[in-house]
Amino acid sequence: MDSIEIILLNFSEIRRRSIKLWQGIPEQYMNWKPDKEAFSIIEMIRHVLEGEHLYHKIIENKGNLGDYASPWQNRSYSTLREELKFAEKYRNDFINMIKTLTVSDLENISIKRTEVGQIKKLGDYLNRIAYHESVHTGQMLHYLRIINIERPLIWD
């Protein structure tokens, strides 16, 4: 396996586990949140899905977002199924972009995010994107522990 294949496997596994977790949450809890400042469950799911698209655009623009407009802007929250369906096209575009990369690209393309003072190699940046979803998966598991809902076994 080369670096690109490993990155693709990592994104696939993280999303598979996220979906397994999300699908294990009863619908009546989708608007639950631990406090008024936190994301609700459905908001966090959308944040993960929308965030991946935002990161994709950051990569396409080598860091500069310009006048980015989210496809999720002005969309009402819906069911998990509808959120996943809406995000599917954007997920496929993101994965297909990764498939076009070379191992050399991971080392030689820089992502310069001047608004946060960050310059990262593309390989590093892709791993940070995967980490973002993983962190929210852990956060969601904690939500379920707080409300005493059985947590799906994602460590298969």
Describe this protein's structure:
By secondary structure, the chain is mainly α. It is 60% helix and 5% strand. A two-stranded antiparallel sheet has the order 1-2. It is globular. The two termini are 22 Å apart. The mean pLDDT is 95.
SSE layout:
Layout: H1 3-23, H2 41-60, H3 80-100, H4 103-108, E1 110-113, E2 118-121, H5 122-146
Helix pairs in contact: 1-3, 1-5, 2-3, 2-5
Short description:
With 156 residues, the protein is mainly alpha-helical. It is 60% helix and 5% strand. α1 runs parallel beside α5, α2 (41-60) packs parallel to α3 and α2 (41-60) packs antiparallel against α5 (122-146).
For the termini, the CA-CA separation is 22 Å
Q: Quick one: overall form?
A: globular
The average pLDDT value, as a whole number, equals: 95
Report strand %.
5-15%
Helix content: 55-70%
Cα-based radius of gyration, to the nearest Å: 16 Å
Our count of helices gives: 5
Number of strands: 2
The class by helix and strand makeup works out as mainly alpha
Give the H and E element order.
Answer: HHHHEEH
Major sheet = 2 strands, antiparallel
